[in-house]
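Please produce the structure of this protein holding nicotinamide-adenine-dinucleotide.
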Amino acid sequence: MRILITGGAGFLGSHLSDRLLAQGHEVICLDNFFTGRKQNIAHLLDNPSFELVRHDVIDPFKFEVDQIYNLACPASPPHYQINPIKTTKTSVMGAINCLGLAKRVKARAFQASTSEVYGDPAVHPQPESYWGHVNPIGRRSCYDEGKRCAETLFFDYHRENKVDVRVVRIFNTYGPRMNPDDGRVVSNFIVQALRGQDLTVYGDGSQTRSFCYVDDLIEGFLRLMNQEETVGPINIGNPGEFTMLELAQKVIKLVGGKPKIVHKELPSDDPRQRCPDITLAKKYLDWEPTVALEEGLERTIAYFRKEIGA
Ligand SMILES: NC(=O)c1ccc[n+]([C@@H]2O[C@H](COP(=O)([O-])OP(=O)(O)OC[C@H]3O[C@@H](n4cnc5c(N)ncnc54)[C@H](O)[C@@H]3O)[C@@H](O)[C@H]2O)c1
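Below is the modeled complex.
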């Protein structure tokens, strides 16, 4: 198949490109390089089945493709808050442009949605049937509400225009090729520990997150995209739940050295708990994560050691 990946030069997009090319598909990677990096896809540029297009998803695009993965959107709070209006436009216009193209060329369209659609959840762990608890006017709203609106568009194009869609709700994912400066907790802790700096924990560190290794997530993407039982939304994430303090301690143990943990004020709307209910992923995709946190952290630490020369 010929497959378009918007945001293909990002952390997840580059891993997805690797997997699809290994399966013998052609990949068109569309990216405006806001948070994506050329080095993530440098190893693919000589591959005749890989094509790179610098373009912004806010502006329409046309390609003859069989499938579209819509991943374009800054994913970490410091990045999506730099220009919040642009973040909403990226999610909403990007979804409209992908769906318009999917309708025209009869491609299957996949939306990378997020656990942020659940906001600061009142239900724990979060099943797909939970509608969420989201602040519509806060600092995180550009991302959360943009992604919620993108989901709405995917389901309206599906109902109204018979566009073939799949929607995944991604929970925190980590691994090699995360941007070292994008302020996500796993890369923050690892980079700080490798540089011998203190690890920054926001609040008292008792808030929890679940962390999925990137290879597990991409396997979930492919299974969801290539089955006929459900259009989603489907949670993909690792239900193993850890506090931020536990994560910091694990990173310190694996990296070595004697960094301290320092506490900073909790950002506004920071969710207290996050943990996916993956019953539907097990049922429809026969999917569950296989990489344990320590193993995934070791692989990620090895990547960052090379990356920052520590
Ligand atoms: N990694 C996670 O834990 C996670 C969790 C939930 C959802 N997601 C979603 O998965 C997708 C990929 O995330 P990621 O972790 O790879 O982040 P990333 O920042 O590494 O990748 C996003 C990519 O989209 C590109 N992009 C941003 N705005 C664009 C625009 N207007 N036009 C074209 N390209 C644009 C960026 O340059 C980058 O290459 C995002 O949609 C994100 O919201 C990721």
